[in-house]
Amino acid sequence: MESVFLKSLEENIDKEFTLDMLLAALPEGKSTFEKRLSAALDELFIVAKEELNNMRVEHLEENDRTLTWIHEVKTPLTSMKLMIDTVENSKVKKKLEVEWLRVHLLLDQQLHHTRLPSLEKDYLIEPINFDKIIPAEIKELQAWCMQKGIGFEIDLSKEEVLTDQKWLSFIVRQILSNAVKYSKENGEIQVFSQMDSSKHTILNIQDFGIGISSADLPRIFEKSFTGTTGRETIASTGMGLYLAKNAADKLGIDITVDSRVDNGSIFSLKFPLKNEMTRISGR
User: Which structural domains are found in the chain, ordered by start?
Assistant: First the structure.
């Protein structure tokens, strides 16, 4: 028959306690065996806490090194852009601009990947109009769009949404770059907003490219998932949508996608109402 000590120990372990809470909740024990077991567990928890703190310090230091590296790489990347602008051969210039853009986007992904865990400390919630974001993000992808002959049809409402402009720009950037990547030559991408029956503003980004198979659809927001339908020949890290989804979740934005193979995809971003945003900010 289990003793009161073991039952109490089992109950505390089953709870979602931190190490400090577990240490405080450990029963002292009455018998010699119980006291020795309690002391051994105390020691194990203290060692575990020290190791966890060391890992946190190492993680923060690694993040700092990564951020420093990113900012150092931006300097030669900026110099390269200025050099590309001076290239006279238009064909060569367009190819260089697209390759430069690919490096720029990968660097941008890594920067936001590093900052994502501290997003709540970094964001500024304010009223944002899509006109402040969409044209700027499309312009960033201009060289790629020109290479593929892709045009845009934009129909944005004047309603404002409560969100962080910098992180929303990043989310839109990932979805737009995905739309360009998987669009067919001389295709079109539609960007439009609407309001649903519950007054939520929804931003839609629709392409008419290769689409996503029904088997891949449930996994497209998973880390490093690149899919199988038509993606084997296209370079992809599988990180863009993963980061976009994680950032959106922290901002209370609901991302959904509807897609069919060879018929393209439509990504929809549903923004929280003011009262919902207040609850999210207070987490």
Answer: 126-281 (3.30.565.10)
